Amino acid sequence: MPATLYERLGGEERIQRLVTDVVENHYSNPLIRSRFANSNRAEVERHVVEFLCAGSGGPQCYTGKDLVSAHKGMNISEQELVAAMDDIVAAMTKNGYDQAEKNEVVAILYSLKGDVVRL
Protein backbone atom coordinates (compact mmCIF):
# COMPACT_ATOMS: atom_id res chain seq x y z
CA MET A 1 0.00 0.00 0.00
CA PRO A 2 1.43 3.43 -0.88
CA ALA A 3 2.40 5.80 1.91
CA THR A 4 -0.11 8.46 2.92
CA LEU A 5 0.69 12.11 2.36
CA TYR A 6 1.07 12.39 6.15
CA GLU A 7 3.76 9.70 6.07
CA ARG A 8 5.49 11.28 3.05
CA LEU A 9 5.46 14.66 4.85
CA GLY A 10 7.34 12.97 7.71
CA GLY A 11 4.66 12.73 10.37
CA GLU A 12 3.82 15.24 13.08
CA GLU A 13 7.38 16.17 14.08
CA ARG A 14 8.49 17.08 10.56
CA ILE A 15 5.15 18.75 9.79
CA GLN A 16 5.63 20.90 12.92
CA ARG A 17 8.99 22.10 11.57
CA LEU A 18 7.39 22.82 8.20
CA VAL A 19 4.52 24.76 9.76
CA THR A 20 6.91 26.83 11.88
CA ASP A 21 8.56 27.97 8.64
CA VAL A 22 5.20 28.49 6.89
CA VAL A 23 3.93 30.69 9.72
CA GLU A 24 7.20 32.63 9.78
CA ASN A 25 6.81 33.23 6.04
CA HIS A 26 3.19 34.37 6.49
CA TYR A 27 4.10 36.78 9.30
CA SER A 28 6.91 38.21 7.13
CA ASN A 29 5.05 38.36 3.82
CA PRO A 30 4.07 41.97 3.05
CA LEU A 31 1.01 40.82 1.09
CA ILE A 32 -0.57 38.89 3.97
CA ARG A 33 1.18 39.74 7.24
CA SER A 34 -1.52 42.24 8.20
CA ARG A 35 -3.96 39.29 8.29
CA PHE A 36 -1.99 37.94 11.25
CA ALA A 37 -1.40 41.20 13.14
CA ASN A 38 -3.88 40.44 15.92
CA SER A 39 -3.46 36.68 16.01
CA ASN A 40 -1.86 34.43 18.59
CA ARG A 41 1.09 32.95 16.71
CA ALA A 42 1.27 29.78 18.85
CA GLU A 43 -2.44 29.16 18.30
CA VAL A 44 -2.15 29.75 14.55
CA GLU A 45 0.74 27.30 14.41
CA ARG A 46 -1.09 24.68 16.47
CA HIS A 47 -4.18 24.85 14.28
CA VAL A 48 -2.17 24.68 11.06
CA VAL A 49 -0.25 21.64 12.33
CA GLU A 50 -3.51 19.93 13.30
CA PHE A 51 -5.13 20.86 9.98
CA LEU A 52 -2.21 19.61 7.90
CA CYS A 53 -1.77 16.43 9.94
CA ALA A 54 -5.46 15.51 9.92
CA GLY A 55 -5.94 16.54 6.29
CA SER A 56 -2.97 14.51 5.06
CA GLY A 57 -4.06 11.26 6.68
CA GLY A 58 -2.55 11.53 10.15
CA PRO A 59 -4.26 10.48 13.37
CA GLN A 60 -4.54 14.01 14.77
CA CYS A 61 -7.87 15.78 15.17
CA TYR A 62 -8.36 19.32 13.94
CA THR A 63 -9.83 21.47 16.73
CA GLY A 64 -10.05 24.81 14.93
CA LYS A 65 -12.96 26.45 13.17
CA ASP A 66 -14.05 25.12 9.80
CA LEU A 67 -12.47 27.05 6.93
CA VAL A 68 -15.57 29.02 5.96
CA SER A 69 -16.18 30.19 9.55
CA ALA A 70 -12.51 31.03 10.04
CA HIS A 71 -12.30 33.14 6.87
CA LYS A 72 -15.82 34.62 6.64
CA GLY A 73 -15.78 38.39 6.50
CA MET A 74 -12.07 38.57 5.67
CA ASN A 75 -12.62 39.04 1.91
CA ILE A 76 -9.33 37.31 1.10
CA SER A 77 -8.27 37.94 -2.49
CA GLU A 78 -6.91 35.44 -4.99
CA GLN A 79 -3.60 37.32 -4.81
CA GLU A 80 -3.44 36.75 -1.05
CA LEU A 81 -4.23 33.05 -1.50
CA VAL A 82 -1.42 32.72 -4.04
CA ALA A 83 0.96 34.56 -1.68
CA ALA A 84 0.06 32.14 1.13
CA MET A 85 0.56 29.16 -1.17
CA ASP A 86 3.93 30.56 -2.31
CA ASP A 87 4.93 30.80 1.37
CA ILE A 88 3.99 27.16 1.85
CA VAL A 89 5.94 25.99 -1.20
CA ALA A 90 8.98 28.02 -0.08
CA ALA A 91 8.82 26.39 3.36
CA MET A 92 8.48 22.96 1.76
CA THR A 93 11.54 23.66 -0.40
CA LYS A 94 13.49 24.81 2.66
CA ASN A 95 12.52 21.59 4.44
CA GLY A 96 13.62 19.35 1.55
CA TYR A 97 10.28 18.05 0.31
CA ASP A 98 10.08 16.50 -3.14
CA GLN A 99 8.14 18.12 -5.97
CA ALA A 100 5.46 15.41 -5.78
CA GLU A 101 4.57 16.37 -2.20
CA LYS A 102 4.65 20.08 -3.07
CA ASN A 103 2.30 19.48 -5.99
CA GLU A 104 -0.09 17.43 -3.86
CA VAL A 105 -0.21 20.02 -1.08
CA VAL A 106 -0.77 22.85 -3.57
CA ALA A 107 -3.56 20.88 -5.27
CA ILE A 108 -5.28 20.29 -1.93
CA LEU A 109 -4.94 23.94 -0.93
CA TYR A 110 -6.25 25.13 -4.28
CA SER A 111 -9.24 22.80 -3.95
CA LEU A 112 -10.14 24.71 -0.76
CA LYS A 113 -10.16 28.10 -2.51
CA GLY A 114 -13.96 28.38 -2.33
CA ASP A 115 -13.82 28.02 1.47
CA VAL A 116 -11.32 30.88 1.85
CA VAL A 117 -11.48 33.47 -0.97
CA ARG A 118 -13.95 36.38 -1.16
CA LEU A 119 -16.01 35.38 1.87
From TrEMBL:
It comes from the Bacteria. The keyword Metal-binding applies. Gene3D superfamilies: Globins. Heme binds at residues 47, 71. One of its GO terms (biological process) is oxygen transport. Keywords: Heme, Iron, Metal-binding, Transport. The keyword Transit peptide does not apply. This is Group 1 truncated hemoglobin GlbN. It comes from Variovorax paradoxus. The lineage of its organism: Bacteria, Pseudomonadati, Pseudomonadota, Betaproteobacteria, Burkholderiales.
